[in-house]
Amino acid sequence: MTSAWAAAPVARKAAVARKTPAQKAPVKAVAKAAPVPGQVRQWMGKLTLRQQVAQLVIIRFYGDAPSSKTKAYREFQRLVKTDGVGGLIVLNRVRNGVVVNAEPYAMAAFLNRMQRTAALPLIVGGDFERGASMRMSGTAKFPHNMAYGAARDLAATRFLGLHTAREARAMGVHWIFTPDADVNNNPDNPVIGLRAFSEDPDEVAQHVVAYIEGARSDPKTQVLLSVKHFPGHGDTAVDSHYGLPVIAADRARLDAVELKPFRAAIAAQVDSVMSSHLRIPALEPEEIPGTVSKNIMTKLLKEELGFTGLVTTDAMDMQGLSKMYSAGEAAVRAIEAGVDVLLIPANPEQAIEGVVKAVQSGRISKERLRHSVEKMLGAKVRLGLHKKRLVELEELADVLDSEEAVAQAQQVAEQALTLVRNDQGALPLKAPEKACLYVLSENRYSQLGRRLIDDVKEKSPRLAVQWLDSTMPEAAFDEVVVRAQRCSAVVLAAFSQQLSAAPTRFVEQVQQGPAPVALVSFGSPYLLRAFPKVGAYVATFSTAPTSESAVAKAILGAIPFRGRSPVTIPNLAAYGSGLE
Asked: Is 51 within a domain?
């Protein structure tokens, strides 16, 4: 698909020029800190070949604290104690189609048990793209990255980096796989979207650098940062969790767009770069993912861009990679390509065994393996894990219960609210007591929209509010359509990238009524394309609860709409657009 980024270069460059540049000199990165070779040599001297390989493997866990009598716990014991994997990464569970976050104290207790079990300290990671709240309950509910792009506030992005680092270390997480350097220049991207700061590469680069600066600004909370998904996942229409996306852009476009934020991150001395399971013919002629491409991971990233830190794969159980190779072969090819760390192999034992056999056969040299192992162990030393690996449970509340972080998260959510269209003057509501709000849910178990409903009821008790589930009978939707005709104005709140058949039909029918209709999109700013005739349109650029609270205030006139869209909505809204 043609990139929307190139649609209006003059207006775009003017908008970028108005932004406050990231002028602060970056603080020295963990990856560039002075190593402690003595400790690393001591560890290396004790490791067998298999144990060296295992140090490069990071396995998943779910942030709970299983009983030592369970099969799950025994599996962790085997992988950590017997196989000696190098680390863990916390992921979410999904129940009834709803993401369930982990509880910080349970996770910290489990990590302490695992750290005591491990011969060498474990490095623990987390995809904390919007703060720890992406994976953990009880943490500040920061909006998605694209909301920061809409808010145009680099200071807020620095605070996001700072507080995320604090939350992570307090819970026993040392490696946060952020910031996201993808340029979301494809409206049909199914996997990046709100995770990106913008469709503009300069804007993305500024936020990436600001995040790195913030995360490094408190020396007490040292973490590793991993910029992703190299060399850029924004211009894809396939989710690499389920297939192999292809970026057809030529090298000149890649330099001008995709690679620009990564160059900025490397200049800011980011600790780590995460690969992406993408095929990019301009960089790699073979039909293989970038993760296993030496042209991309070594020649481009290391030799051309000069990156010397840790190189990690994206999750290796994603089908963009796992459909093509066994766990062992994928691991071998990744290391041959130039990767250091194997993140979530589909089968950890097979991955370890595959690399061991490759070293024994000479396919991977012992020197090549040693290089990556020493980098991994050196990172653990620089993080101070050889001196302190356990979590201080008593100190958790002091970091997680931060009024400043909560206030900052809410402020960004409010700054990001973007009024893209208001043709019928539907917003803010002029007579809330006569208006109606309908929350369109795609899952009956979802909590999305609950905060919006509660806040609206509290602020305007007489405003009619109703939750609509996509699994409702068609007749039930028809009844709501009839009632909506009596409303002075209708606000529709949607949380999905695209609506299923029943909610789509409902929106179309409500638009035909006499009342002005306002569509509020939390899940994707591009939803307007499905309803181009809607009178008013608001983009929040985030599904976080803080964004729901912001919308409740704005539709009732308590706060203004101030955001500017960091993306183009093709044929409907330009980059930088937004009404006040």
From this structure: no
Q: How far is the first Cα of the chain from the last one, in angstroms, to the nearest whole number?
A: 32
**Can you give the residue range of the structural domain that contains 531?**
417-555
- Whether residue 30 lies inside any domain: the answer is no
Residues 303, 436 share a domain: no
Amino acid 37: pLDDT: 63
Q: Tell me, rounded to whole angstroms, the distance of Cα 144 from its chain centroid.
A: 8
Q: According to the 3-state scheme, what is the secondary structure of 255-275?
A: HHCCHHHHHHHHHCCCCEEEE
Residue 369 is assigned to a structural domain of this protein:
yes
Same-domain pairing of 222 and 350? yes
* Residue numbers in the chain where pLDDT is lower than 70: 1-37
* 319 within domain boundaries: yes
**Cβ(352)–Cβ(83) under 8 Å?**
yes
Q: What is the pLDDT of residue 109?
A: 95
pLDDT per residue as tens digits for the range 263-287: 999 999 999 999 999 999 999 999 9
> Which amino acid does the sequence have at 203?
E
Q: What are residue 482's phi and psi, to 5 degrees?
A: -65, -45
Of 503, 240, 546, 311, nearest in space to 413 by CA: 546
The secondary structure of residue 238, as a DSSP letter, is S
Q: Are strands 342-343 and 436-441 parallel, antiparallel or unpaired?
A: unpaired
Helix (H/G/I), strand (E/B), else coil: 419? strand
Long-range contacts formed by 503-506: CB under 8 A, 24+ apart: 503/440, 503/442, 503/468, 503/470, 504/530, 505/477, 506/438, 506/440, 506/468, 506/477, 506/480, 506/481
Among all residues, which ones are annotated catalytic?
A: 241, 314
Residues 6+ apart with CB under 8 A from 64: 102, 103, 106, 107, 110
> 197: part of which helix (H) or strand (E)?
none
* pLDDT for the residue 20: 40
Domain count of the fold of the chain: 2
pLDDT at 18: 39
Helix (H) or strand (E) holding 214: helix 201-215
pLDDT at 145: 98
The model's pLDDT over 443-472, given as tens digits with 9 standing for 90+, comes to: 888 899 999 999 999 999 999 999 999 989
